[in-house]
Automatic annotation (TrEMBL):
It comes from Rhizophlyctis rosea. PANTHER family: UDP-GLUCOSE 4-EPIMERASE (PTHR43725:SF47). NCBIfam families: galE (TIGR01179). Pfam families: Epimerase (PF01370). It comes from the Eukaryota. CDD domains: UDP_G4E_1_SDR_e. This is UDP-glucose 4-epimerase. GO terms for molecular function: UDP-glucose 4-epimerase activity. Its cofactor is NAD(+). Homodimer.
Length: 382
């Protein structure tokens, strides 16, 4: 936790689902926050609500990662202590249709960010990666450790793995750089306040927003793609993690990135718990270590909302697997972090946000929204 003057964290993609929950946790831990987001999949209302909830300001830049002049302006104007990099395109099916977009934003955008960090001497980074980098589990009955092979099945997963390699190469040549890679499993839920939550633009790509559209009557039913897996109820099993637990994982990772940046040139590196011999680069799974089936999620959501959720069996999707569950032991041990909230908490919190915000974030923001969001949540444009 920062002392005296607050440390400033630059959060790319901070208006989005996981980014906004992380911004909230950072502010609660007394960091100061600068957000860059092009709002391609989010609304600045998430940030505005956080300001009003916590009575703290956020500096917001509306713009793209690919604008090097904007990045220079941000790094020149603010004394950035560390970067948390969420901004990306994230739909695996869409990435199959638009591979160039995914490589351009996810890899090209990250290259621009890393170049700017180097130009401005900022050397602490936490990066959003994904369990999709693993591909099909070698043993579907076992937990997946960070040392599992990485054979991603789609352009999205490949673009994230490429960024991991890019950051690793930068760490190799720049010992003063410290990077923590977080591979998320399935983030679900919302902040307890019901003020911020998951509000995807267009058709939801994840299970829970889809289920909630059935609960709220926007969709008739949900297809269970694959009901003949070798799992306890035949539906796929995944590792669901509450988004607030995940957000706290980022806060824990900041101090780790600082440690890596400051100690990588020392001789303690052989005992460093990395998955690679690069002493200033570490990878952690962000998961609970517990498997929950798709049908169990539907059952829990139905109980939480006291509503039936119509679902039908559908064929398996190409590339799907029976079970994908994290081994989170490394993050538990080294980061001192663990997922604490239950699937019931995830469903209750996701429903609270959906019930309070059936249409998601609805404020209309005309023009460029760059400026300072004040403690009342109002935007003072630059
Ligand atoms: N949600 C998941 O299930 C999941 C799982 C694994 C990994 N991740 C990764 O976590 C990160 C955050 O995911 P999320 O669920 O919060 O997604 P999100 O879409 O809600 O957040 C991403 C944010 O980045 C912004 N953005 C996209 N391209 C940008 C660009 N070029 N410049 C500036 N801003 C840009 C979007 O507007 C959005 O606000 C992503 O990197 C994603 O790949 C997400």
């Amino acid at each position: 936790m920062p002392t005296e003057t607050p440390k400033t964290i630059f959060v790319t993609g901070g208006a989005g689902y996981i980014g906004s929950h992380t911004v909230l946790e950072l502010l609660q831990e007394s960091y100061s926050v600068i957000v860059l987001d092009n709002l391609s999949n989010s609304s600045p209302e998430s940030l505005s609500r956080i300001c009003a909830l916590l009575q703290k300001p956020i500096t917001f830049y509306q713009g793209s990662l690919s604008k090097s002049q904007l990045l220079d302006k941000i790094f020149t104007t603010h004394k950035v202590w560390a970067v948390i990099h969420f901004a990306a395109l994230k739909s695996a099916p869409e990435s199959v249709e638009k591979p160039l977009d995914y490589w351009g934003v996810n890899v090209g955008g990250t290259m621009g960010l890393l170049e700017a960090m180097r130009r401005h001497g900022v050397g602490r980074l936490v990066f959003s990666s994904t369990a999709a980098v693993y591909g099909t589990p070698v043993d579907p009955t076992s937990l997946i450790p960070e040392t599992h092979q990485t054979v991603p099945m789609n352009p999205y997963g490949r673009s994230k793995l490429a960024v991991e390699h890019l950051i690793r190469d930068l760490c190799t040549t720049t010992p003063s750089f410290g990077a923590v890679i977080l591979r998320y499993f399935n983030p679900v839920g919302a902040h307890k306040s019901g003020k911020i939550g998951e509000d995807p633009k267009g058709q939801p790509g994840n299970l829970v927003p889809f289920v909630l559209e059935v609960v709220s009557g926007k969709r008739k039913r949900i297809d269970i793609t694959g009901t003949d897996w070798e799992t306890r109820d035949g539906s796929g099993v995944r590792d669901f993690i509450h988004v607030v637990d995940l957000a706290k994982g980022h806060v824990a990772s900041l101090e780790r990135a600082d440690f890596l940046a400051s100690s990588s040139s020392s001789t303690t590196t052989t005992s460093s718990p990395t998955t690679s011999p690069i002493p200033n680069y570490e990878i952690y799974n962000m998961g609970s270590g517990l498997g929950t089936s798709v049908l169990e999620i539907i059952k829990t959501m139905s109980a939480v909302t006291s509503r039936p959720i119509d679902h039908v069996a559908a064929p398996r999707r190409a590339g799907d697997v029976a079970q994908v569950v994290a081994d989170p032991a490394r993050a538990n041990k080294i980061l001192g972090w663990r997922a604490e909230m239950t699937v019931k908490d995830m469903c209750e919190d996701a429903w609270r946000f959906k019930e309070a915000n059936p249409e998601g974030y609805t404020s209309v923001w005309e023009g460029d929204s760059s400026g300072v969001l004040g403690v009342d949540g109002r935007l003072e444009r630059f």
